[in-house]
Structures are given as structure tokens and as C-alpha cells.
Automatic annotation (TrEMBL):
Transmembrane regions: 21-40, 52-73, 93-120, 132-150, 157-180, 200-222, 234-254, 278-299, 335-354, 360-380, 392-412, 418-437
Organism classification: Bacteria, Bacillati, Bacillota, Bacilli, Lactobacillales
Gene3D superfamilies per UniProt: Amino acid/polyamine transporter I
Membrane-protein topology: Multi-pass membrane protein
Species this chain originates from: Fructilactobacillus fructivorans
Cellular component GO terms held in the UniProt record: membrane
Protein's cellular compartments: Membrane
Entries under InterPro entries matching the protein: AA/rel_permease1, AminoAcid_Transporter
The protein's name: Amino acid transport protein
Presence of keyword Signal: no
GO molecular-function term, one example from the UniProt record: L-amino acid transmembrane transporter activity
Length: 448
């Protein structure tokens, strides 16, 4: 009995500072998108100038979203991020569905797809046969997961180190592109791109997906020092840093090899630039940089998504909530929730197309984003006299821009992948009977 009571008093360790939170924001955003989406954005935009404007527009829209969430985070600094916000702003039902979608499919699928891509890169780098890709992906995911069973300062330190490491090849691309690139790159046009051009809106949509991941740091609200101040700062400065990085990388690549070459090479544009500017060694260094980037991105996601499961289990909203809400007394980490998320990830790596599953959930993620952005107006109306530690700048225009940007993503998804949208809604709907059994029925059966 005493052991049980002692365990119930164990709480998450509130030890993460601003630099740890910043590295998580930057680390979870910068994965492989900036390395592989250059041609896609350029092709849809139709010109170098259009591509640069698309990256800037995507960044500014992401910043509007981040500033809106930052105001909410300063008022609801709880573990679980979006799940906690939806529950407070609306009700337990909407909170549960947002959390369910993230822990059952979206989060595990994102981690699984990163693991699968990492295995491919490691296989190419070390000349390993493709049949070893699945075991390599599983080992990589489990290794990063084990790291996160230690006190959160280890995962945070790893995030800082990998973020710094991934910025080294990024800095090299920027410097060589800016100082050794062709000055006339922006006067060139992509002669045959207009046959498949998607337009500026589609180009901006591609950049929004490359910027996604910034909100995950909010899942650690219960482990960040002074979260009412630190979360808004980490989200705001983290997104601003990524905008600057993405713009400089895109500008450097365009200056170095020009839009026509980028169009011809597709996803191989940046590796070509690395080999061109640095030789074979440069290509190897870039590969190492991308590998580290993926590992850092994976670490951020494995560190944050299990916190949603833990927060839901603490509210007794999931099957086996008692076990999933367990915190290791020594490390103060939700080791059972971490293991549960990793188990789902491994199943996806072995039996499903993780990339496709993560794409299916983009629609529902942005639906919940829209609801969260409306929460800025709801909370202000509900608590008109509440003193806010952080207020979104240029209110009400900033949250309105965030809402419109999310609606643009939602409409684009409906238009381009209607079947996927239906499947995505079906995945969320599977959580409804779970909610009514685990939350409603248990509540009614509880002794009064």
C-alpha cells in the first residue's frame, strides 16, 4: 500500500529550460523536408522568386499558428499540448479525439516513417542490403526510445546535440550557396515546369508540411520550467529560427545550381549541390547531416507523443490507464506509455505504409488546429479580465490568418485526396466507442 501511494506521488520532472525547448521546436520541424522538397516547391511555384515567396509565406503562416497556440499555452501550461487545450477550451470528448488521433496513428506513423527513411539512408551509406531495412528501422526507433526512458534531461541534451549537428551541413549549404553560387540564378526560369505546375498555393502547401511539428513541444508543458513564459518563447523563437534557416537554404541552393537544374534533379538537388561544392566527401558529410537530422527529429517525437498518452491515462481515458499512467520513480518518465507508442510504431514499420498513414492524418490534425486557433477567441471571451502572460501580437488578425491557412490545407486535402480524408475521419471515429466505454461508462459506474 505504501509503495502504491509513493508511486502515485511521483510527478514528471519539471527540468527543461528554454534552450532545451527551443532545440525541440527546431529539431522536430527540421527533418528531411528542407532537403527533399526544394524541387517540389520550385516546380509548383514556377520560378525561383515564386519558390522563395512560397517558403516565406509558409513560414509566416506557421508563425501565425505558433503565436496563436503560444497564447493558449501560456494559459494552459499542461502536459499533452493540443489534447489538453481541446479539453479545456471545448470538453473531454474533443480533447479525447484529438489525443486519440495523435497517439494511435499520427504520432506512431510519423515516427515509423522517419525510422523507415533512416534505415534506407543508413543502408545506402554503409552499403547494407535492403532486406535489413526493417530490422535497422526497428533498432533505431527502440534505441531512441530507450534513451527517453532515462530522465528527460538526457533526451533534451540529445535534442540539443543533434540540432547543433544538423545545422552544420545546413550552414555549409547556406555559405557555399551564398558566396560561391551564380549571381544570375534568379534571372533564370524553369522552361518546362509549367506543364505540371500546381500553382503558388500548392507550393505554399508543400512548405507548410515541411514546417509542421512545431506544436509538439507543448506536449511537455508539465516538464518545462515556468511554462507560461517558456512555451511561448520556445514556439515563437523556434519558428522564427526555422523560417530563417529554410529561406537561407533555399536561397543558397538556388544561387548555387539554379532553378532549371533543381527541376531536373528533383529530390537529388541538394546531394548534387553537396558533391559539386564539396566533392565526394561533401556528399558523405551531407548524408551524415541528414541522418543526424532524422534521428533528432525522431527523438523529439518519441519524447513528446507518449506524453499525450500519459496525460490521457492520468485522466483514466484509455484501456490499461493505470499502467499507461505509470511513472518510473527514479527517472520520472512515462516508460509504459513510451513502450506502448513504440509497440505501435514497430507494428507500422513491419506491416503498413507509415508514410501513407501519416498523410491520412494530416487532414484531421489541421481540423483540430482550426478548433484550437478559435480557442484564442473563446478563452478571451470566457475570461475577459484574466491577465495573460503572453498575448498574440496583432490580435485578432494573427489567429484569423492561422485559421485561414489551416482551412486552406483542409480544402486542399479534400480536393486532392478525398478517399484519404474519409479514411482519416474513420480513424478518428474509431475512438468514439472507446471514449464512451472508457470515459462515460466508467464514470457512471464509479461509486458516488
Amino acid at each position: 500500500m505504501k509503495k502504491k501511494e509513493a508511486n502515485s506521488n511521483v510527478k514528471l520532472n519539471r527540468s527543461l529550460g528554454l534552450w532545451s525547448a527551443l532545440s525541440l521546436v527546431v529539431g522536430t520541424i527540421i527533418g528531411v523536408g528542407i532537403f527533399v522538397r526544394q524541387a517540389a516547391v520550385l516546380n509548383d511555384a514556377g520560378s525561383a522568386t515564386g519558390a522563395m515567396l512560397a517558403w516565406l509565406a509558409g513560414g509566416l503562416l506557421t508563425l501565425a499558428a505558433g503565436l496563436s497556440i503560444a497564447e493558449i499555452a501560456s494559459q494552459i501550461p499542461a502536459t499533452g499540448g493540443l489534447y489538453a487545450y481541446m479539453e479545456v477550451i471545448y470538453n473531454k470528448f474533443w480533447g479525447f479525439l484529438s489525443g486519440w488521433m495523435q497517439i494511435i496513428v499520427y504520432g506512431p506513423a510519423m515516427i515509423a516513417s522517419l525510422g523507415a527513411y533512416l534505415a534506407i539512408l543508413l543502408g545506402d551509406f554503409f552499403h547494407i542490403q535492403p532486406q535489413w531495412n526493417i530490422p535497422i528501422a526497428i533498432v533505431a526507433v527502440v534505441a531512441v526510445g530507450l534513451l527517453n526512458t532515462f530522465p528527460n534531461r538526457f533526451g533534451a541534451a540529445f535534442s540539443i546535440v543533434t540540432t547543433i549537428c544538423k545545422l552544420v551541413p545546413v550552414a555549409a549549404l547556406i555559405i557555399f550557396g551564398l558566396f560561391f553560387g551564380h549571381a544570375d540564378a534568379f534571372t533564370q526560369s524553369v522552361s518546362d515546369v509549367h506543364s505540371t505546375v500546381g500553382g503558388f498555393g500548392v507550393a505554399m502547401l508543400a512548405t507548410l508540411f515541411a514546417f509542421d511539428g512545431w506544436i509538439l513541444v507543448a506536449n511537455l508543458g508539465g516538464e518545462i520550467k515556468n511554462p507560461k513564459k517558456m512555451l511561448p518563447r520556445a514556439i515563437t523563437f523556434g519558428i522564427l529560427a526555422v523560417i530563417a534557416i529554410y529561406m537561407l537554404v533555399s536561397y543558397g541552393v538556388l544561387k548555387s545550381i539554379g532553378p532549371q537544374k533543381i527541376h531536373e534533379l528533383g529530390t537529388n538537388a541538394i546531394p548534387y549541390m553537396a558533391n559539386k561544392d564539396f566533392g565526394v566527401i561533401g556528399g558523405k558529410i551531407l548524408s551524415i547531416g541528414i541522418i543526424i537530422s532524422i534521428i533528432g527529429c525522431m527523438n523529439g517525437k518519441i519524447m513528446t507523443f507518449p506524453r499525450i498518452m500519459y496525460a490521457m491515462a492520468k485522466e483514466n481515458q484509455l484501456p490499461f490507464s493505470k499502467q499507461l499512467a505509470y511513472l518510473n520513480p527514479k527517472t520520472r518518465t512515462p516508460i509504459v506509455s513510451i513502450a506502448a507508442v513504440l509497440a505501435i510504431v514497430i507494428i507500422m514499420i513491419c506491416f503498413f505504409d507509415a508514410d501513407r498513414l501519416s498523410e491520412l492524418c494530416i487532414f484531421t490534425v489541421y481540423c483540430f488546429y482550426v478548433m484550437a486557433f478559435f480557442g484564442v477567441f473563446i478563452l478571451r471571451k470566457r475570461h475577459p479580465d484574466r491577465k495573460r502572460v503572453f498575448s498574440v501580437p496583432l490580435y485578432p488578425f494573427t489567429p484569423i490568418i492561422a485559421i485561414l491557412a489551416s482551412l486552406f490545407v483542409i480544402c486542399s486535402e479534400i480536393g486532392s485526396d478525398f478517399i484519404g480524408v474519409v479514411c482519416s475521419l474513420g480513424i478518428v471515429a474509431l475512438g468514439i466507442p472507446v471514449y464512451y466505454f472508457e470515459v462515460t461508462s466508467k464514470k457512471n459506474k464509479a461509486p458516488k
